[in-house]
From TrEMBL:
Pfam families: NMO (PF03060). InterPro entries: Aldolase_TIM, NMO. Keywords: Flavoprotein, FMN, Oxidoreductase. One of its GO terms (molecular function) is oxidoreductase activity. The keyword Flavoprotein applies. The keyword Metal-binding does not apply. Its EC number is 1.13.12.-. It comes from Mycolicibacterium nivoides. Residues 1-24 are annotated as: Disordered. This is NAD(P)H-dependent flavin oxidoreductase.
Length: 358
């Protein structure tokens, strides 16, 4: 997709189809920085083509506000459709933010979606399930619909139901997904599909994007921007124990694994095609591949898990991170993450071509 880069001061990119003007109190960095203008920044009236992944409970009002204030698009992690928690988050937000849902949890809780739509979110982000039952009410509310997909069939379906933005999530991503495709190949295939059948739809890349190299790669593959989870999981504003972050900072991508263990022990009835990428630990090693036995010992295993969560013992408690964790070595402010990612990507995209050596 078309990208322009320029060095700018504290300015806001011009808004077009989706975004409201900058919310009151919108924070801009006073120093000059490299700005990446794409169809995403124009459509949502944001400065940087960086979107916060709506990580359930981790992406709360504080983190979503911080990403929006830094010039990205913040999304609250509505996750399992926890109405009291969502109500508190929307009461606390001060910026223009969106909200994401685990789609299959909306069944029977459509009133929670209506509550969010009444708050005029910047977007609604649907993942993991058929968006068709909910797309009409989102579009009728005039709210942009973002659909996360994992293969070409899902992408085509998202376009058919009226998605404004399609997120191509590769298996490198933390948390749930189908995990059969990598970001590097899935993104350009979906870009090509969208270009053929619905060119106005935006495409974002997700999975493994933690710095400017990933953002530059995504833009080079034709995406209009990126959805970032693990890097913001390791932000100062993330609603996550500091001990979990410090534990993860010592990990590499090789230390993560796709598994169903934590869905079983938490009694989350995820559709079987979805697995979750987490930090591998003793608890996962004990039960991975033995989920039937885990169900037979569920009371004891659940008690062990819950005690570990309370004690912040990550030999048994879950740490939901993606393969990109291996490129993260410190916890930073969300604003620093957004700006450093954009500046690094802009510098890469500005590099002059060099002649091949004979």
């Amino acid at each position: 997709m078309l990208v322009s880069t320029e060095t700018v001061g504290p300015a806001v990119s011009p808004g077009h189809s989706f975004g409201p003007s900058s919310a009151p109190g919108h924070i801009h960095h006073e120093e000059s920085y490299m700005s990446l203008q794409t169809r995403l920044t124009e459509a949502f009236d944001i400065e940087h083509p960086v979107v916060l992944a709506p990580m359930d409970y981790v992406a709360d009002a504080r983190l979503a506000d911080a990403v929006t204030a830094a010039g990205g698009l913040g999304l609250i992690g509505g996750g399992y459709t926890d109405e009291p928690w969502l109500s508190r988050q929307f009461n606390d937000v001060t910026e223009s933010v969106g909200c994401g849902f685990i789609t299959w949890t909306l069944r029977g809780k459509e009133h929670v979606l209506d509550f969010v739509l009444d708050r005029r979110p910047a977007a609604v982000f649907l993942s993991f399930g058929d968006p068709a039952p909910y797309a009409p009410r989102i579009r009728a509310a005039g709210v942009p619909l973002i659909c996360q997909v994992h293969d070409l069939a899902q992408a085509a379906h998202a376009i058919d139901v009226g998605a404004d933005v399609v997120v191509a999530q590769g298996g490198e991503a933390g948390g749930h997904g189908i995990g059969r495709r990598s970001t590097f190949t899935l993104v350009p295939e979906i870009v090509d599909l969208v270009s053929r059948v619905s060119p106005k739809v935006l495409v974002l890349a997700a999975g493994g994007v933690v710095d400017g190299r990933g953002l530059a790669a995504a833009l080079a593959l034709g995406a209009d921007g990126v959805v970032v989870g693990t890097r913001f999981w390791a932000a100062q504003e993330a609603a996550i124990p500091r001990s979990a972050q410090q534990r993860a900072l010592h990990a590499t991508g090789d230390d993560t694994i796709r598994q169903h263990v934590y869905d079983v022990v938490r009694e989350k009835n995820w559709p079987k095609q979805y697995s979750g990428r987490v930090l591998n630990n003793a608890f996962v090693k004990k039960w991975h591949g033995s989920e039937d036995a885990l169900e037979q010992h569920l009371p004891q295993a659940r008690a062990e898990f819950q005690a570990a969560v309370a004690d912040e013992d990550y030999t048994s408690a879950n740490v939901i991170i993606g393969e990109g964790i291996g490129m993260i070595r410190q916890v930073d402010d969300a604003a620093d993450i957004v700006c450093s990612m954009t500046e690094q990507a802009a510098a890469i995209l500005h590099r002059p071509a060099t002649a091949a050596l004979a």
